[in-house]
Amino acid sequence: MPTPDFIRTIRAAAGHQLLWLPGVSAVVFDDEGRVLLGQRADNQQWAVISGIPDPGEQPAACAVREVYEETGVHCVPERIVLVRSGKEVTFDNGDICRFMDVCFRCRAVGGEARVNDDESLQVGWFAVDALPPLSETQLFRIKQALSDEPTWFEPMGTD
User: Which of 80, 100, 105 is nearest to 89 (CA)?
Assistant: First the structure.
């Protein structure tokens, strides 16, 4: 995944130490109830679309931007389905990050699903009962987006 310029600036001073960063993810459904997934170029895993907001960018606007940039699909956020701190991630270059994810359920409103940048190897629509292999984190995002439960968050005292 390309590193945003503002993070490169921070890394120039901070080195590889842990950075706490905002993140968004988007579980996008089409009119047939299929979910939009991308196979990530950095780790070859299938995932919902995600990204890092630019400084001052609203999370919902970031979700819409990232979905379009990565897949060519236009979407509208419908609701927040979860807010969760992710696990610490160490990238190949030694950079360490931990992301606070705000996950949105979104509805596709136009565009055509395609690989639209260099962040994905493949992009496609999948029936929820015929998903490619996904991590538990990705499956949980989809599960929460399909439920009618209020926004999910980790209960206090469980970390």
Answer: 100
- pLDDT tens digit string along 54-71? 999 999 999 999 999 999
Query: How far apart, in whole angstroms, are the C-alpha atoms of residue 101 and residue 83?
Result: 6
As a whole number of angstroms, the distance between CA 145 and CA 96 comes to 28
Please spell the DSSP secondary structure of 8-25, one letter per residue. HHHHHHHTTS-EEEEEEE
Element (H, E) at 101: strand 96-111
How far, in Å, are 11, 21, 78 from residue 39 at the CA level? Answer: 27, 22, 24
C-alpha distances out from residue 70 to 14, 20, 39, 44, 122, Å? 29, 23, 10, 15, 10
Written as six digits, the tokens of 34 are 């299929």
Domain ranges of the chain: 24-146
CATH code of the region 24-146: 3.90.79.10
pTM above 0.85, yes or no: yes
